[in-house]
Each structure stands twice: as structure tokens, then as C-alpha cells.
Amino acid sequence: MSEHEMNERDHKKLGRELDLFTFSDSVGKGLPLYTPKGAAIYRELEKFVLQQETKWGYSHVKTTDIAKLDLYRKSGHYPHYQDSMYAPIVIDDEEYMLRPMTCPHHFELFLSRPRSYRELPIRFAELAQLYRYEQSGELMGLIRTRSFCLADAHVICASEEQAAHEVGRALDLIEHMTKVFGLSLGTDYRYRLSLGNRENAEKYYKNDAAWEKSEDLLRKLLVSRGSEFEEATDEAAFYGPKIDIQMKNVNGKEDTAFTVQYDFCMPDRFDLTYTGEDGKPHRVFVVHRSSIGAIGRIMAFLIEKYAGAFPTWLSPVQVKVLPISEKHIAYAKTVCDRLLENGVRVELDDSNESLGKKVRSAKVEKVPYVLVIGDAEVEAQTVTVEHREKGKIGAEAVDAFLSTLLAEIRTRA
User: Fold this and answer.
1) Exposed e or buried b for every residue in 126-138, given b needs 16+ CB within 10 A?
2) Annotated domain spans of the chain
3) For residue 163, what are the CA distances in angstroms to 156, 167, 168, 285?
4) Rg (CA), the chain
5) Distance separating alpha carbons of residues 226 and 378, to the nearest angstrom
6) Each residue's pLDDT tens digit, 138-171
7) Which letter, b or e, does each residue of 286-310 get, where b requires 16 or more Cβ atoms within 10 Å of its Cβ?
8) In CATH, what class is 319-410?
9) What is the pLDDT of residues 257-279, one digit of tens each?
10) Do residues 256 and 245 lie in contact, with contact meaning Cβ atoms separated by under 8 Å?
11) pLDDT below 70 — which residues of the chain?
12) Nearest-angstrom CA–CA distance, 229 and 313
């Protein structure tokens, strides 16, 4: 990819040009503001996560953005993760913290009542707003921010075998969802097995035997899947090893887009147990995973992947209706209303500009479909359809076009 093409695909540049997101010094560094167009993409990604994860057996929950500091002391995030957390907030003589993770919250949900082996695995998922204090020099567009929404989940299992199976299912889900985006393993992303460091007791939970066993479990799983992967020492979470999905932005910098983690630490810290078939308490096993990572981060990768020309289901404006002159506006509005009634994101360009200029404007905005309306279309009650890549398709009845469009959106073609 040439330097010019890299610049043209840079999500920060396209974000401005396509009016998707902005940053404000008055709001603060690393805190993105999404415009209506950017928020349309954001919400589609959220809907995609909710729909797919539900199909795959996840139960979506909702927990708070703030909690007592003692909760993160209990989990080990504080002090292990302290440098990446915001400063404590004192409320009624108690210390609270903006959450950097959801796992402690999900564990408290699990502890809200006794659990039986028949319930496991339990898959708690959440589109969770998180807050992390990234250093100013590390902030980068939507890829690295201080506030973000993570497609997070924690799978609570009855055995190591069940946990290993759930790690495999999480990777299956990731590969399924990335395929919908047009991302392929080995080309657009790769697997990294992130290991601990037995010598670094400050960074990692001390349990050498558990580290050896869990790292070997993830390694064997990747090998059994036939997945190519790199091993990286000193890149694990403090509570266990992980499989990271690594992606590069257009400038060649690699980031962890999302991850699947094996946790042998927090079940002990939170005393997470279930009643087994033998009627006795047993310690659970926990898998942390994200299906598409942070919504803003995957959005940045997709802006660069598509160079801003999103597939129809993700496009902030899916259809632009272009009346040729003022006398065609009334019919154009009825066409827009018909599309809006069916959930299509449509805009009417009723400006006084020439048709050629309106079409060029829609192309600059990378709108997938343009509907041209003139005398012939008003008389026949049709629209003339043009596609971003296919060019002019021709005259169609509104309902016929709508049927094809909705099928394309529904299947995320």
C-alpha cells in the first residue's frame, strides 16, 4: 500500500471527511464524540453483537459504570492495573472508581444466588462502557481512547474441559463475526498466544503450576484447531494467559483488537463455587472474552478496511434520493417516507444544485444507493437506481427496490 493510499484510508482523516466522529478539548483527550452518522455505524455494530451473541447462547446483562474501589482491590485490578485506572472518587467517605473492566461486576452477579452444576456454563455478556487512563502519547483516534464500549463476556464453567470448549467456541464466534466484516484470519488479523512471566511476581498472580497448565491448555487448543499463532512472553493478563486477535492499522501499527482469556485467579479471589452433582461445593473456571472488541476500535479498523465505503448494512446513509428539480420533490418525499417506514437510513437532497453535482456529492459521501427522480419516474411511480460500485441499475418500482435493499441489509451482504 502506497503512502498516499495509507493516508487516504486513515480512519482519523476519513472520520473528519465523512463526519463520523470528533474530539473536543473541552470534553477531554481520548474521549470521542460520535456524530449522527458515526453513531449509526456504532449502533449497527452493537445490534450485530447483541443478535449474534444471543444466537450463540450468551445472556446479556447490564451493570454499573462505577463501583467501590474495594471491589477492584478484591479482583486484583487495583493495584495490578492501577496505572491504567482513573483516580478514586470519594462519595460519602467511601472511595469509588470508574470501572476499567466488567469482570468483578459479573462475578457479583454470579454470587447473587447459589449456583448448580446444571446451570453451567453461564455466559454473561455486556456492551459495557469502560474507562482507562491511557497515556497522552498513546492516544490514537478511535483505536486507543480513554472511554470505550467493550463487547465483553465472562463464561463461568464447571471444569477445565468445559472452559477449554468455551475458549474454542469463543474463537469460533470471533471467526464467524469477522467473516461478516470481510476480515480473514492470516490476512487481516492473526492469533497471538500471550504468556505470563514467572519472574515478574509484581505484574502477575503468583501460581507457577496454574500458569504452566493454563498456557499449555491454550497452546494445545490452537494447535488442535490448526491455527497459526505467535507466542509472546510477558503479554498475558495478570490473572492468566490469553489468545489475542492482533490487527494492524493502515500505518502498520499493531494493536490487540479483541481477546480470549483463561482465568485461574479470580475464582479464588471471589470464592466462585457451584454445587456439584455430588452435592458439594466446587470451584468454577472462568473464560473472559470479547467478540468484536471495543466498538470504537473495530469501527476504526473497518473505516480503514473499507476506505469509508461501508457495506450497505453498516453505511450511515444507505440511500440518497435525488429529485432532478423542485417539481419532483413531493414524490421524492413519499419515496423517502416509504424507506424510512422500513428502517432504511435515507436522506433527501432537495438542494438547488444540478443532478450531476448531487450525484457527485453522494459519491464523495460513499452512499451505497442513489435514487434519481424526474418526470418519467413521477409518471411511472418508479425510481432510477444507481449503485456506488455497480453504476446505473435502471428503473424499478419502489417496493421492488425496497425488497432487494432490505434483503441485502438483513443478510449483511
Assistant:
1) bbbebbbebeeee
2) 3-306, 319-410
3) 8, 6, 9, 6
4) 25
5) 58
6) 999 999 999 999 999 999 999 999 999 999 999 9
7) bbbbbbbbbbbbbbbbbbbbbebbb
8) alpha beta
9) 999 999 888 999 999 999 999 99
10) yes
11) 199, 201-202, 205
12) 32
Q: Do domains 3-306 and 319-410 have the same CATH topology?
A: no
Neighbours of 280 (CB within 10 A): 8
Nearest to 147 by CA among 288, 27, 60: 27
Strand stretches in 112-251, DSSP E: 122-131, 147-157, 190-194, 229-232, 242-248
Residues 343-387 have pLDDT tens digits of 999 999 999 999 999 999 999 999 999 999 999 999 999 999 999
Q: CB–CB of 229/40 below 8 Å?
A: no
The SS3 call for residue 367 is coil
- The class (CATH top level) of 3-306 is alpha beta
pLDDT of residue 201: 67
Measured CA to CA, the distance from residue 325 to residue 375 in angstroms comes to 9
Closest CA to 377 of 323, 299, 338, 337: 323
Pairing of strands 319-323, 273-275: unpaired
pLDDT at site 252: 84
- What is the sign, positive or negative, of the torsion defined by CA atoms of 135, 196, 232, 290? negative
